[in-house]
Design goal:
Layout (H helix, E strand, L loop, with lengths): L1 H30 L2 H4 L9 E5 L8 H8 L4 E5 L2 H5 L7 E2 H4 L5 E5 L6 E5 L2 E5 L5 E3 L5 E2 L2 E4 L5 E5 L3 E2 L3 H6 L8 E17 L10 H4 L4 E17 L10 E8 L5 E19 L1 E5 L4 H5 L7 H8 L1
Parallel strand pairs: 2-16
Antiparallel strand pairs: 1-10, 2-9, 3-8, 4-5, 4-9, 5-6, 6-7, 10-15, 11-15, 12-13, 12-15, 13-14, 14-15
Bound molecules: zinc ion (ZN).
Amino acid sequence: MIYKIITSLITIITIAFIISLSGCVGEKATENPPQKASLEKLNESNVTTTWNLSFLYGSRDDATNQQVNKDVLFQTSTIDALLEGVYDGDTTFGELKKHGDFGLGTVNGLDGEMLELDGKAYQIKTDGVAYAVNDSMKTPFAVVTFFEPDKKLFLNTTMNSSQFPDYLESKFPTKNIIYAIKIKGNFEYIKTRSVPGQKKPYPKLVEVTKNQSTFEFHKANGTIIGFWLPVYMKGTNVPGYHFHFITDDRTAGGHVLEYILGNSSIEIDYTSDFLMELPGTEEFYKVNLEEDKQAELEKVEK
Ligand SMILES: [Zn+2]
């Protein structure tokens, strides 16, 4: 009898203990909801950052296995070949889209600035208008990836194009991998450019950009898409930032020269794989790519 009473007492105490424990956990959970717990603490009160904790360095293999090469930067040709006037490539947009739904570049004949967003490609010509690109058209230089953000930030303030690059770099976990960047929001100001289509014999890009058309937008809703690449990629692509812009109604845009960001969401896709496909064309085979062209690149990007 005494034994039974003791056993019942122990059971009651155990149950009470479990209930009180789960009560504690429940309370804790209300105090610190999962989303709050994953927020990065920042000094700037006007910026909110959310980390996707599943993607920290070292987990690249997991990401590649699960996503079947979605974190690959694919590019056709090299920026130095474009600087040298190799304006015709052999990659169609149909082919390009198999490697990504997000990216930038140009179209054959250097006929404007190209941007791909949500799997649709646009060509912004020197009239500033965005035209749809069809899959049979070709590109001499393009960079794409499948955009899957690993980090999200929200900017509740204004920041201009001399402040924002350093700010964003300070959020990168390393300067040794590739970042695809999407900035969607209201732009207080944005200045873009486009380049005129060329006829053979093609001049060098530094000559073409002397005749570039520029466009200014005020209080425009749109999306900047682009990349940040490590310095060691010079020669093959543009080190640092390269941004193209398109308005929300998909009617205008261009290669970004200056901007003032307003309220905007910033998404970053960490990318550790790189695939470069070189044109099998006579022009590409013959062009001299042995010299350093960083000084020329500086001129054409501005
Ligand atoms: Zn560009």
